[in-house]
Design a protein that fits this description.
Mean pLDDT: 91
Structural class: alpha+beta
Shape: globular
Number of domains: 2
Number of strands: 11
Largest sheet: 8 strands, antiparallel
Radius of gyration: 17 Å
Helix content: 25-40%
Number of helices: 7
Order of helices and strands: HEEEEHEEHHEEHHEEEH
Length: 213
C-alpha cells in the first residue's frame, strides 16, 4: 500500500505521546520501552525532553538507534486506530529559544523540568516508518519520503494573531505547518488538516478559516 506522507504527518501531530524503544544497557540485546511525550519539530521530526536520570536517556547516549510507536487518539480499540512505528537515530541537540517556546506551547508542563537543569533535548531522525491504518491498510515510508523540509516557513505568531478570533472558547493554538494546524481543546491535543499543503502564512489562515466555517 502506498502511504501518503500527509497521513503520517497528521498522525505525528495528533499524538501527544508514544512508546520509545531503546537498546538496554542493563540487559544488552533486549529492547527497553518507555512512555514519553513528544512534539514534532518544523520538519515533523519528534522532539523529546529527557532526564539524564532516565534509563532510556542512558541507553540513547550509548546507542542512538531507537523506535517510536504512536497511535491515533480515540476511544476505540488500538487495533482500530491508525498507528505507526518510526525507526531511526535519536540524538541530543540544542534548541533555539523559539524552538523551546514552541515546544512549551505543546507541553507547558515541561517548563518545570527545564528549571531542574538535568534534562536534555533529543530529536529522532527517522530512517523508515511503518504505517498501519487498519486491516489490509499498511505500508512503509522510506528515509527519502520522510526527510522533508517545511514547504514554507510559516510565521506562527502572525498566524495566531489572525485566527485568534476564530478559536472557540477553551481552544488554544499550538502550532501551524503547511499540512495543518495543531490546537488543544479540553486538554487534548487535536489536529486540523488542510485539504492540501499551503505555501505561506496567508494561505494557512485562509485554509484554517475554511475549516472553522
Amino acid at each position: 500500500m502506498h502511504v501518503p506522507l500527509a497521513v503520517l504527518i497528521d498522525l505525528l501531530h495528533g499524538a501527544a505521546d508514544g512508546a520509545l524503544a531503546t537498546h538496554s544497557l542493563q540487559l544488552p540485546g533486549y529492547p527497553y520501552v518507555s512512555a514519553v511525550p513528544f512534539v514534532p519539530d518544523a520538519s515533523h521530526r519528534p522532539l523529546f525532553l529527557l532526564s539524564l536520570l532516565a534509563e532510556h536517556t542512558h541507553n540513547l547516549l550509548a546507542d542512538p538507534r531507537a523506535s517510536l510507536v504512536i497511535s491515533e487518539p480515540g476511544e476505540q480499540s488500538v487495533l482500530q486506530r491508525a498507528r505507526a512505528t518510526l525507526i531511526g537515530d535519536c540524538v541530543e541537540l540544542a534548541l533555539s529559544d523559539a524552538e523551546v517556546a514552541r515546544y512549551l506551547r505543546y507541553c507547558p508542563e515541561a517548563q518545570q523540568y527545564l528549571s531542574l537543569g538535568d534534562f536534555r533535548w533529543f530529536r529522532m531522525q527517522p530512517e523508515r516508518a511503518r504505517f498501519v491504518g487498519g486491516f489490509g491498510r499498511m505500508g512503509w515510508l522510506e528515509a527519502g519520503d520522510l526527510d522533508v523540509a517545511p514547504l514554507a516557513r510559516l510565521d506562527e505568531q502572525q498566524f495566531q494573531a489572525q485566527v485568534s478570533s476564530t478559536l472557540a472558547l477553551g481552544v488554544r493554538f499550538l502550532g501551524v505547518d503547511p499540512y495543518g494546524v495543531d490546537i488543544e481543546s479540553n486538554g487534548q491535543r487535536q489536529r486540523r488538516s488542510f485539504d492540501s499543503p499551503v505555501a505561506d502564512t496567508d494561505a494557512a489562515v485562509r485554509a484554517f478559516r475554511r475549516l472553522a466555517a
